[in-house]
Amino acid sequence: MEDVSSQRSGQSKDVSSYLTLDESPPNFIPIKLEEHEPADFSTKDLILRKAREVCTCSHQTITTFFCRLFPVLDWLPRYNIKTQLLGDVISGLLVGIVAIPQSISYSLLANQDPIYGIYTNFFCNIIYVVMATSRHNSVGSFGVLCLMIGQSVNRHLQLAGYSDDNTGSSLVDNSTFSNGTDACDRSCYAITVALSLSFLVGLYQILLGVFQLGFVAVYLSEPLLSGFVTGSSLTIITSQMKYLLGLKISRHEGVGSFILTWIDLFRYIQNTNICDLVTSLVALAIIVPVKEINDRYKEKMKAPFPIELLVVIAATVISYYFNFEERYKSAVCGSIPTGFKKPTLPDVNLLSSLAVDALPIAVIGFAMTVSLAEIFGKKYGYAVRANQEMIAIGMCNLIPSFFYCFASCAALTKTLLKESTGAQTQVSGLVTSLVLLLVLLWIAPLFYSLQTSILGVVTIVNLRGGLRKFRDIPRMWQLSKLDTVVWWTTMLSSTLVSTEIGLLVGVCFALLCIIFRTQRPRATLLGKVSNTDIYEDQSTYKQLSSIVNVKIFRFESSLYYANKDYFKTVLYQKTGVNPILLAAKHQRLETQASADIGNSKSFSNTKFDCLKAAKKRTEGPPADARPPSLDMHTLILDCGAMQFIDTVGLSVLKETRHEYKEIGVQVLLANCNPSIRHRLREGGWAGDTDSGGGQLAFHSVHHAVQFAEWWYHVQQEESKDEITECFGLEGASRGHLAQQPCSEEEHL
Q1: CA atoms within a 13 Å half-sphere pointing along the CA-CB vector of 628
Q2: Taking the chain, what is the end-to-end CA distance rounded to the nearest angstrom?
Q3: Which of 51, 511, 533, 722 might form a disulfide with 702, Cβ 3.0–4.6 angstroms?
Q4: 53, 71, 120, 203, 206 from 209: Cα distances, Å
């Protein structure tokens, strides 16, 4: 029997033998694009060029450097007082009013005294005005960050031997302050841990910005961040429930703290302080409806009603006049000092133990800041530099750490309030700082009688945005089931395990989902849209026509080591042809036919070799030994969705071409991007037949189809000419034999 490749009438001939321009018919026009000469790339030259640019010292270079590092030098000289000042002042005042109760309540969440929350919001706003590129971000204490800070602080308090019972909030005098436990009470050691943590967070963020590592934020997808915020919100609500109920229970940390806290809440619920409970319920009944009205009619209202501040003021007055602290044993904020404390240094002994805790706080902080900055930058049409934003928020954490502040970032609620009330520039941040300065200098002691249950209510009410994400789950499920799974995984792990581990689990799971998507991508066969050169998925669209004897296969992912096996499996499944099994069957039938032919008698005259070959083509093997016919002569691989192929992917393409060639099917590539064409050319995927990577990798599917049809037409013509020539030789041989008498042996 003939070789396996001859089963399709000579289709095993080299494709390159039909690729010359002279033989191309009018309906097929080869396309040959000339590539640009590759630019000489030298790492050494690149480093030297960058170094020269950085080290060049001139007036223009210095001015540009400082304007980029301090964007306020660029926009402040162009500030229009008439058109921008009014909106900035109103917005800054309203944000400052909202920041007062939030600063105090979030201090409680961060396990700090109220004064430190006001310090944090005051200093970070001033620094952010000078260094930010965003015009609308409002930085300050953020609930999720305060939760993570509080967990780290509480863990170190326990390691230092401070119990939860020693909750006195008295502040030591600055003259006796020491960064250790000897001359430092619980409150002092708590802020020492927090400011050391803030120092590391700021240092991490500045390094990320300086080394242009802002791409790290891209691994925190929107579903991941949303799930993390929602999970953290549930944890925050759980941690604040003891204040709403007036219970004195220990604060759990680590794995399972969410469940353990709820167990303790139900265990000691009989000790609920009725005064705190009633006060909390009344505050919730007042704040929540007003906040909902503010949200619903925010477009019609010039400014939202400051219900939180009014409730805080009213609760403080009522608690003071009715003496809730002594009569009902309600927990209150206590003494809040005025003025500023002398700067201090972070405790170097704590830096090593806080290094790991600072990393997720830094990542979440700059991710929230950069994402909010980019959202409003796109909305209002101004440029935001992500790396500069990281440096800015890093400075907002590094410098204030010397002034008894904990870590901060852009706060969602205050940013939305700032944008909706007409803020034009970061001058509004200066106004917010002035409002907080008034509190620091004169107003802070007036909050002595403010119940901690009211602070817990303020904290919980501001988490409504995170809880509203549950309403978006059905819509998210319709859009992307995998993103919904990422959301639930991150949310549940952040809630039930721990905040830091939940973030890590969410990132790892999201990356695994990406790998899963590329490891088992969508693969389809394409059909042609009538009277066009457009080819689309046959399983998705109707009324698509298949190309006769041509299969067009699209693999919607890059081809690399992780999906190489799936590529071949789905290719065989979609085309219905497994070349390995088919070649093995051909080989088995060929062996059987050869054995049958060896037992029969054949002519020995070499003049009849061509005649026997022609008869073999026309008659074919016996029915029981004939291999199954193929319904295709060409396989086209649409590489338009492939971004890259690695060396394993290149080997798979070469193996695929070789396997299909063995059964008489040619393999063509289409829509390859330049990097893939370069890899094919360098790797020689087509062997010696197309070492230049030319006509076997086409620029469009339609062009590849045209070539396949022309190539099949040429093959058919070649086969007909060969058969005609052989039959002509057969007639001539018969005439010659009729003129010569045969011997007796030949006759027999």
Answers
A1: 12
A2: 27
A3: 533
A4: 19, 15, 22, 10, 5
Where do we find the tokens 């052989």? 726
What element of type H or E holds 279?
helix 274-296
- Residue 717 CA to its chain's centroid (Å): 54
| pLDDT 10s digits, 543-583 | 888 888 899 999 998 999 989 999 999 999 998 888 888 87
Contact 55, 391 (CB under 8 A): no
DSSP category for residue 728: H
What's the pLDDT tens digit per position in 92-118? 998 998 889 889 889 988 999 999 999
Segments in 328-399 forming alpha helices (H): 348-380, 386-398
Instruction: Yes or no: say if 145 and 369 are a contact pair by the CB < 8 Å rule.
Output: no
DSSP secondary structure of 191-203: HHHHHHHHHHHHH
Query: Which tokens in the block code for residue 720?
Result: 């007909």
Contacts of 120 (CB under 8 A, 6+ apart): 103, 140, 141, 400, 405, 406, 408
Which residues touch 270 (CB under 8 Å, ≥6 apart)? none
- Amino acid, res. 562: A
- Which is nearest to 179 in space by CA: 162, 165, 197, 191? 191
What is d(CA 294, CA 289) in angstroms, rounded to the nearest whole number? 9
Give 742's pLDDT tier (boundaries 50, 70, 90): very low
Q: CA-to-CA distance for 134 and 137, rounded, in angstroms? A: 6
For 90-153, give the DSSP string.
HHHHHHHHHHHHHHHHHHHHTT--HHHHHHHHHHHHHHHHHH-S-SS--EE--HHHHHHHHHHH
Please list, residue by residue across 384-419, b when 16 or more beta carbons sit within 10 angstroms of its beta carbon and e when fewer do. bbbbbbbbbbbbbbbbbbbbbbbbbbbbbbbbbbbb
120 and 406 Cβ atoms separated by less than 8 Å: yes
CA distance linking residue 271 with residue 106, whole number of Å:
25
Token look-up 């005439």 returns 735
Residues 6+ apart with CB under 8 A from 665: 8, 11, 577, 579, 630, 632, 633, 634, 635
Q: Which residue has the tokens 């961060």?
A: 110
More confident residue, 643 or 14: 643
SS3 551: strand
Radius of gyration of the chain, Cα coordinates, nearest whole angstrom: 38
In this predicted model, what pLDDT tens digit does every residue of 323-361 receive, in sequence order? 998 899 898 888 888 889 999 999 999 999 999 999 999
The β-bridge partners of 524 are: 554
The amino acid at residue 45 is: D
In angstroms, rounded to a whole number, what is the distance separating the alpha carbons of residues 267 and 747?
A: 113
The per-residue pLDDT for 164 is: 60
Q: Which DSSP category does 219 fall into?
A: G
In single-letter form, the type of residue at position 486 comes to V
Mean pLDDT lowest among 9-18, 136-145, 453-462, 635-644: 9-18
C-beta neighbour count of 290 within 10 angstroms: 17
Does 177 score more than 50 pLDDT?
A: no
Give CA–CA dist 148/194, Å, rounded: 11
Inter-residue contact 704 to 698 (CB < 8 Å): yes
Three-state secondary-structure class, residue 547: coil
Neighbours of 663 (CB within 10 A): 23
pLDDT digits (tens, 9 = 90+) for 332-341: 888 888 889 9
Specify whether the CB–CB gap between 9 and 716 falls below 8 A: yes
Please state, in angstroms and as integers, the Cα–Cα distance from residue 730 to each residue in 10, 179, 224, 612, 681, following that order: 21, 108, 77, 9, 46
Dihedral over Cα of 136, 142, 143, 148: its sign: positive
Say if residues 145 and 408 touch (Cβ distance below 8 Å): yes
Tally of residues, the chain = 748
- Cβ-count burial 130-169 (b if 16+ within 10 Å, e if not): bbbbbbbbbbbbbbbbbbbbbbbbbbbbeebebeeeeeeb
Return the amino acid letter for 490: T
Beta-strand relationship, 544-545 and 535-537: unpaired
